[in-house]
Specification:
By secondary structure, this protein is of the alpha+beta class. 28% of the residues lie in helices and 15% in strands. Strands 1-2 form a two-stranded antiparallel sheet.
Length: 85
């Protein structure tokens, strides 16, 4: 098992990643999660099959966490909590 988040294009095609995101959103909606939440899952890199391992309604928000690492390339860390304009 390799923990890569977000996965590079060389490992997962864009269409597969879109399918994974859609399935993850469906799981989060079904569980009633909103705001900052973390889903730990295994993903099949060719079929977008998703196997949920854990769901965290109150995830780790330290600078070493996966959630923080995913958000920081997109926006400043404060955007995790406040809408940036």
């Amino acid at each position: 098992m390799v923990r890569v988040t977000p996965p590079p294009d060389a490992l997962v095609r864009a269409d597969v990643l879109a399918g994974v995101r859609m399935r993850a959103e469906m799981v989060a909606d079904h569980l009633g999660l909103n705001g900052a939440a973390l889903l730990e899952a295994l993903v099949h890199a060719e079929t977008a099959d998703l196997v949920l391992i854990e769901a965290h309604a109150v995830p780790d928000l330290s600078s070493s966490s996966d959630l923080y690492q995913q958000v920081t390339p997109v926006c400043f860390p404060r955007c995790m909590f406040f809408k940036c304009f």
